[in-house]
Specification:
By secondary structure, the chain is of the alpha/beta class. It is about 30% helix and about 30% strand. The chain is globular and about 70 Å long.
Length: about 300
């Protein structure tokens, strides 16, 4: 088995005159949770479909577990892939269990796995109910259940928490954590950036079909050099003293609202700010440090249309 489950080398895709993906190269390591984000039309769905073998690349090469997509070995490799599309659609007249039986047969997985998988995603009590009576969140859980059938080596998830409530999202990521711990590689795309920023190991930001940035969250923060924010809650009556001390550092942006001071500073200035505050410990009630979020990075690299939650 190849060391990297996903290898994308200089891949492009044209749809007529539209250059949807433009010279993308990336690799995904075994057991990683890898994020793929970008605004609408950035090319992430097209790249997703090419990595799954659903559409061919115009140029370049993609290998999955060492098999060239479109090659004779890829059919067998694809049996070890789980995929949840953004909108999971199935037969409304079947029960949840019958839907999983259908997928089990397609994947050549024993049907006896189905009830356990339904329990794992929280659908044990609804297993024999017709899908037409399922809520949107239940349908999404059912879609996730078919992904897990057969214990795949590689999972692709496209906006996987659509329709899930907060408890469902928590349960979903707990299951993902468990399968990742068993060595499964996960590729995930989501518009809800706050949801994935602490969960992905590495990510790619796509913009106009090209990679705008890739790496870990700390690496992306270092590359873009966005300010950190230190929020200080003061004891009453010390605003002037703290302001005068902080103004000794050049380049800080201070905002003061009664007993609250908000300091924007470059990453290299954080320690100096904290040293000043340490010397003024008698004036400080509380301190909170806010690093640039994935949403901040996305917007900084030219992303648009980020959904708020």
């Amino acid at each position: 088995m190849a060391s990297n489950p996903i290898e994308v080398q200089n891949v492009s895709k044209w749809f007529g005159d539209v250059h949807a993906v433009d010279g993308v190269s990336l690799s995904v390591g075994r057991g990683e949770m890898f994020g793929l984000i970008g605004h609408n039309g950035a090319g992430k769905s097209t790249l997703f479909k090419m990595m799954l073998g659903l559409i061919p690349a115009s140029t370049g090469e993609i290998r999955v577990n060492g098999a060239l997509i479109g090659g004779r070995d890829f059919r067998e490799v694809r049996r070890r892939i789980g995929y949840l599309p953004e909108n999971f659609v199935t037969y409304d007249n079947l029960s949840g269990l019958e839907v999983l039986h259908l997928f089990a047969d397609l994947k050549k997985v024993p049907r006896r796995e189905c009830e356990g998988v339904l329990e794992r995603v929280g659908l044990k009590e609804a297993a024999k109910r017709r899908v037409r009576g399922y809520s949107k969140g239940m349908r999404q859980r059912l879609g996730f259940a078919q992904v897990l059938l057969g214990s795949p080596d590689l999972i692709f998830l496209d906006e996987p928490t659509n329709g899930l409530d907060p408890e469902g999202i928590h349960d979903f990521y707990q299951v993902l954590h468990d399968v990742k711990a068993q060595g499964c590689t996960i590729i995930i795309t989501s518009h809800i950036l706050a949801e994935i920023q602490e969960r992905v190991d590495r990510l790619v930001i796509l913009n106009s079909g090209r990679i705008a940035a890739q790496g870990t969250l700390p690496e992306l923060r270092a590359q873009l050099v966005l300010p950190s924010v230190i929020q200080i809650q003061l004891r009453s009556g010390h605003e002037t003293r703290v302001q005068a001390a902080l103004q000794q550092l050049a380049g800080l942006e201070l905002k003061i609202d009664q007993d609250c001071v908000r300091v924007s500073c470059l990453p290299g200035q954080k320690v100096a700010v904290l040293n000043i505050l340490s010397a003024l410990a008698d004036t400080v009630h509380d301190i909170a440090i806010h690093e640039p979020s994935l949403e901040d990075l996305f917007l900084g690299y030219g992303g648009l249309h980020v959904k708020q939650r």
